[in-house]
Amino acid sequence: MAKTPANYVRACRLTVILYVYVAAVAVTARVLPLQLSLAAKIYDTSKYGILQLGNGLAQTPQMGWNSWNFFNCDIDEKVITETADALVTTGLAKLGYVYVNIDDCWSELARDSEGNMAPDSKAFPSGIKALADYVHSKGLKIGIYSDAGLFTCQVRPGSLKHEYDDAALFASWDIDYLKYDNCFNLGIDPQERYPPMRDALNATGRTIFYSLCEWGVNDPALWASKIGNSWRTTDDIEDTWESMTAIADINDKWAAYAGPGGWNDPDMLEVGNGGMTYQEYRAHFSIWALMKAPLIIGCDVRNMTTETHEILTNEEVIAVNQDPLGVQGRKVYTYGPDGCYQIWAGPLSEQRSVIALWNRCSKAATITAKWDAVGLEPSASFSVRDVWKHEYVSLSSTTSFSVQVEGHACEMYILAPATAASAT
Questions:
Q1: Alpha-carbon distances of 61 from 46, 244, 291, rounded to whole Å
Q2: Is 76 part of the annotated catalytic residue set?
Q3: Which of 181, 239, 252, 265 is the catalytic position?
Q4: Given the DSSP bridges, would you call strands 391-398 and 381-386 parallel, antiparallel or unpaired?
Q5: Residue from 236, 249, 372, 386 carrying the catalytic annotation
Q6: pLDDT-derived band at 358, boundaries 50, 70, 90
């Protein structure tokens, strides 16, 4: 049989991609940048359009706070109410951090006489419903934790075989979000264990965000889009440079499977917990935003440093994460020693792009992003806005852009057609 010409194959593939996008626009209002022919080769979107759970949530990645990274099991209703207060007083809530999520250890060690989960009577004497009422009174949403196994990871009751009863209980407490873990799972395939809770949540009649925490063991990006609103692609993050960078790389390979309605989740933010430097935390926040990862704060927001507050409240970086186009940015090329000079990029709405120049070496270096490598026409002219300095560093750049980046640091920029910047 005659071999089909390569140019014809590429043209057909581009036509299919265009068709998928046009179909998706009716639902998600996403529009590709004008430089589609170049961008389509880099930002594979062939898996888009298969989404999603259909509960109307997660049109952009979820934002909020979770108790685990800082408090572990040392939680009570005072911690939760004070955190809700702090999200409001620090301005975090106004920026979109609206979920207040209680992780493991909120419940008693065993179900009650009627077979129901019960909140720990010492830690949560007022009950979860009263706590939810308080959080809602602040204009926030509340989340809770359970497990698709016999027990949670801290050996509290799990929801396996109790999905409908537990979902009904959560709904009666006015819960808005469920993080659903993977411990003590009896070796049952996750594609069997996670759908029953989806169905149970839907059956309650309450709209509840469904966050799967399967740790990426069975590649949930391949199957979770019809089950949950987000899915963990990795093991638990640790508050170290090594953990954060490794997790970013793992999450990156699943970029083609995320989009409005369902997101890849490389785990919560460690910003502010003390294990990394300011520059490393800024890189962490930048890359999570670019990857359209959920921005779930994991530090004690009641006692943030000025630097932590500065990172978490950067509105321009948050806007990248919450961009309505909903295309996960990714690592587009690397060079230098062991590939430690990295360019991550992605398309944004309004014909813009985001690029991150990430130096994963320990010494400062000049890193260059070439237009064609990030999906832009080399001869086109773009403004370059530094989202950390909140200023334009160029109103008209062509071909490429270079900047010196400190060791373990990440600089992040928004590129827009030069005519658009000059008109503002």
A1: 20, 19, 10
A2: no
A3: 181
A4: antiparallel
A5: 236
A6: very high
Q: Helix and strand tally (H, E) in the chain?
A: 13, 16
Query: What's the residue count for the chain?
Result: 424
Reading the block at residue 236, the tokens are 């638990």
- Taking a C-beta distance cutoff of 8 angstroms, is the pair 96, 298 a contact? no
Kindly report the pTM of this predicted structure. Answer: 0.90
> Tens digit of pLDDT for each residue in 323-348?
999 999 999 999 999 999 999 999 99
Sign for the CA dihedral angle at 36, 41, 43, 44 comes to positive
**CA dist., res. 109 & res. 111, Å (int):** 7
Q: Of 36, 16, 51, 37, nearest to 256 (Cα)?
A: 51
Range name among 21-30, 156-165, 254-263 with the lowest pLDDT average: 21-30
3-state helix, strand, coil in the chain (%, to 5): 35, 20, 45
What is the mean predicted confidence (pLDDT) over 97-125? 98
Query: Which pair of tokens denotes residue 356?
Result: 């991150």
Is 236 an annotated catalytic residue?
A: yes
Pair of tokens at residue 191: 């594609």
Residue labelled with tokens 């989340």: 143
